[in-house]
Amino acid sequence: MNKRMDTIRISKKEQMVDAAEALFNRYGSKRVTVEEICRKARVSKMTFYKHFSNKAALVRHIRDVYVEEGFRKFDEINALDIPFAKKIDRMTQWKVEFGARINADFIREMVAVDDVVADVKHRLLNNLKDARNNGEIRDDIDPEFLWLVTEKLSELVKEGTWKEVFADYSQYQYQARTLIFYGLLSRKDTEKSENCSLSS
User: Which pairs from 163-166 meet CB under 8 Å and 24+ separation?
Assistant: First the structure.
């Protein structure tokens, strides 16, 4: 009986998460109310508050799911036995496709909740240091400096000022990552990447 009740609870929670994600990606989280989420998910407000203390907690939950998805993809690509330049190509393509799925306002609202920044920084710096030790990226650019640049680019997302240049968030993502990572590549890897692009 308890097992069955747990299954029902999980199902209700998933319904709310799916409903909220659909609404947030259409309108942004700020314009959506708990009542609207409950109506779309076909659950009561009492059920909502059994799972989430408030709407902000639900936003954090969805953000955490997205972050974990990103980390899984990052680790999966990083484990491939391919040159660093190719890894960046794949990571960038995934980020562009991922960004295209999500409402730009919702991305900005999620980025404002930044309690996973330390984990992101740790993973990124380790990846860059490994690539530098393997001679795949320039050794005259400090990964810590790159992190500062990344933080500044994140501020453009929080402020929404990227919209002054780009109509679509995925375009911004692609440009930002190209600027950062191709500036890191050693000359020979940059030439290889350019030759691949010309021949394809």
Answer: 163/104
- Once rounded to an integer, what is the mean pLDDT over residues 87-107? 80
CB 84 within 8 A of CB 136: yes
How big is the chain by its Cα radius of gyration, in Å?
A: 20
Q: Which two tokens stand for residue 4?
A: 């069955």
CA dist., res. 116 & res. 153, Å (int) = 17
Q: Mean pLDDT score of the chain, rounded to an integer?
A: 80
One DSSP character per residue, 97-143 reads: HHHHTS-HHHHHHHHT--TTHHHHHHHHHHHHHHHHHTTSB-SSS-H
Confidence band of 46 (pLDDT split at 50, 70, 90): very high
Q: What secondary structure letter does DSSP report for 5?
A: H
pLDDT of residue 191 exceeding 90, the answer is no
Q: Which residues of 154-186 are buried (b: 16+ CB within 10 A; e: fewer)?
A: eebbeeeebbeebeebbebbbebbeeebbebbb
Among 183, 170, 100, 86, which Cα is nearest to 138's? 183
Q: Is the CB of residue 86 less than 8 Å from the CB of residue 112?
A: no
Cβ atoms of 37 and 23 closer than 8 Å: yes
What pLDDT was estimated at residue 197? Answer: 46
